[in-house]
Amino acid sequence: MIKVTVDHRAEEPPYLQLAGILRARIASGELAPGVMIPSITTLSQEYGVAVSTVRRSLGVLKAEGLIRTRPSWGTFVVPEAERPKN
Amino acid sequence: MIKVTVDHRAEEPPYLQLAGILRARIASGELAPGVMIPSITTLSQEYGVAVSTVRRSLGVLKAEGLIRTRPSWGTFVVPEAERPKN
DNA sequence: TGAAATTTGTGCGTATGTATT
DNA sequence: GAATACATACGCACAAATTTC
Question: What is the CATH code of the structural domain delimited by A14-82?
Fold first, then answer.
């Protein structure tokens, strides 16, 4: 475990910090395919950042193909086999 | 000329409409490398959408490699030779 | 020297819409 | 109908870098 919180005073912007934290939680297997990712609102409260900041973090991971969001359903980890390489 | 305004009542969200409009202006050569792209604030007023919406549109074009933003300087069209194909 | 204006980057809060449960 | 959850949009504020005067 390296980073577990968002530091608002660090140089790296919170949305990138949170993206990194979630990326690590996925890599570690804690957040795995089939496991429901905490809702945006929950993540917002957990990490003390705004909802829009969480959305931005998820946007990063979505662009990486790590997660997939289903409107009015939730956010999911993409199975490793389906992730774009690179 | 096909689309020149953003329709808030259309199905396509404004940020995608604006991205399409700017993409067309680039494709037509009106916005070319070396020509200064209107600032986010200007685009916001021109098209009647919020600054944050313009930013989102530019984010789409940036992801496509069509434009490049330089903080405290402006936004530029990427020369065709330097654009990623596909 | 330096102050003001400009421009992008980032963050927050709020509202509305739509789909699911 | 109510609660939940994501999608989109808006407006505001501040920071940092650059340009201009």
Answer: 1.10.10.10
